[in-house]
Amino acid sequence: MSTRQWPRGGQTDTIVVERMRRSGAIIIGKTNVPEFGLGSLSYNPVYGTTLNAYDQSRTSGGSSGGASVAVALQMMAVTDGSDYMGSLRNPTTFNNVFGFRTCYGRVPALTRDVFLPSMGVVGPIARTVTVLAMLLAVRAGRSTWATSQPSGRSSGSGTSLCRTRTLITLLDSIAC
Question: Domain for residue 4, yes or no?
Answer without folding.
Answer: no
